[in-house]
Amino acid sequence: MRLRGYRDGDRALLTGRWLPGELLGLPLPGWPALAEPTAVPPPSGPGDELCVAPGAFVRYADIDWVGRSARVETGRAPDAPTTAEALLEAAVAHGFHRLNLRRLYGWVTPAAPTPTTALTDAGFTREASVPEHLWLGGRAVEREIWGALRHD
Questions:
Q1: Are 70 and 77 contacting, i.e. CB atoms less than 8 angstroms apart?
Q2: Which long-range contacts (CB under 8 A, 24 or more apart) does 9-16 make?
Q3: Buried b (16+ CB within 10 A) or exposed e, 53-77
Q4: pTM
Q5: What are 66-103's pLDDT values in tens digits?
């Protein structure tokens, strides 16, 4: 699967019921009925790259063109034909080969139902843990930083 560039017609993909800024932005079960969905801003300059796939998006934020790194966020609609595994694989391929980056990283919240096997299969490893980083389900929860490096 290849990612394509964002167009204004893709705006509906940028709002969903997932945690903000997640590397693996899967819809959260039990999202409170009155809670606003997460909204991802469209690209705003050279530090942002936004790509889409069927029913999903990949956002490269805080791009450091000199250090060749970027924070990656994804989001998927509940009925998206694109799997989390395929989306992460495409995000890594696009980041490393099209954007010529050396390091991709992102936030993962273990309290959310996150299949970390999809992350490890895409080349990500857990780098650090930040206790009580995010408020979820009425309590402070841990958040982890996961990263992938290109070795060549």
A1: no
A2: 10/52, 10/57, 11/42, 13/52, 13/55, 13/56, 13/57, 13/75, 13/77, 14/39, 14/40, 14/41, 14/42, 14/57, 14/75, 15/39, 15/40, 16/75, 16/76, 16/77
A3: beebbbbbbebeeeebbbbbbbbbb
A4: 0.90
A5: 999 999 999 998 888 989 899 999 999 999 999 999 99
